[in-house]
Amino acid sequence: MIIQPANRTLSVKEYYFSIKNKEMARLNVERAAKGLEPIINLGIGSPDGTPPRPALDTLAREACKDGVHGYQSYTGIPQLREALAAWYKRFYGVTLDPASEIQPLTGSKEGILLASLTFLNPGDGVLIPDPGYPTYTSASRMVDARIVKYDLLEKNGWYPDFDALEKMDLTGVKLMWTNYPGMPTGAKATPELYERLVAFARKHKLLLINDNPYSFIRNTEPLSILAVPGAKECCLEMNSLSKAHNMAGWRLGMIAGEADYIKEILKVKSQMDSGIFRPLQLAAVEALQADEDWFRELNAEYHRREKVAWQIMDALGATYSTDAAGLFVFGRLPQMPAVEGKTPGEVVSDKLLYEAGVFITPGFIFGRNGENYVRISLCASVSTLECALKRVRFCINNCK
Fold it and tell me: Model pTM?
């Protein structure tokens, strides 16, 4: 390069799964040369199912029309915002003004960076859960915010220790990230938890952003933090169609909250893209009409898969919750020493990748409190998971 990249690039690395995907591609070439089957990837949570049929039909029909391929409104078409508002009312009991309290996004991952750009100045403090989604940390670093980790521990049900939070130095802390049902932990939200989080945010004058894409997965009681009285004064919530509607690659999400917050986010978003493809938005309107039967059938399949994932955890000697939500099983490994500076989760993950041809995610990427854990994605068929189980058992019994 004849120039140096911006200083912000020094604070982040290439996304972990981007690195591992390239490594697995290389390893698969080597495996093919040896006559071995490809690696079974149980890492990332990319749903492998099909979206609701009406959404597919609408996309195909609308994409063939004239006049739909240009730039779109930065705020999304009214039909989409109205459908999102109706979805929140029907399933969460939350009333949102579709004209001013909802901003469609190209996925909630975009929303994390958008919110960080919108509300954080260099040096502002950000409360980030440990373990938690790595993008909360990387987005904060890219805007030169000051990261303040708060612990989530299995012994506390993966909920914040509010007494410990009150003892922390919160000077200059402006924003707090929460995520329930939790990734990677699978911890479910409760009304009481959301009430305490809202009270904490109001007391300390923080903007709390709840990341809520997993509330329909392996969970019969979806909750929104915006249902708590007074939450809109201090909270925003992100959601998406990625997980609950099998539409991760479509890149359709939202952020919701008080109109003044949404207006500020639009200032930034309107500089970054030129709207979402109109047929995608109309298809999303159809997907949002999915009823309880859709989610029951979706979750019946995930419940079949989780039983095999539990068997993989059992084979590893790991402990895990059988009452978790979301797309993953998160398991604590038996006590073991670090090897060459690697955490227990990384040791196990590497062993299975290189010797069994199975990739599961080491928990260290989610923070210090995840170092003794591994995560298995449920975004693979029962037969694929059963094949992974056979490979893991063979490796444990036969690999050095």
Answer: 0.94
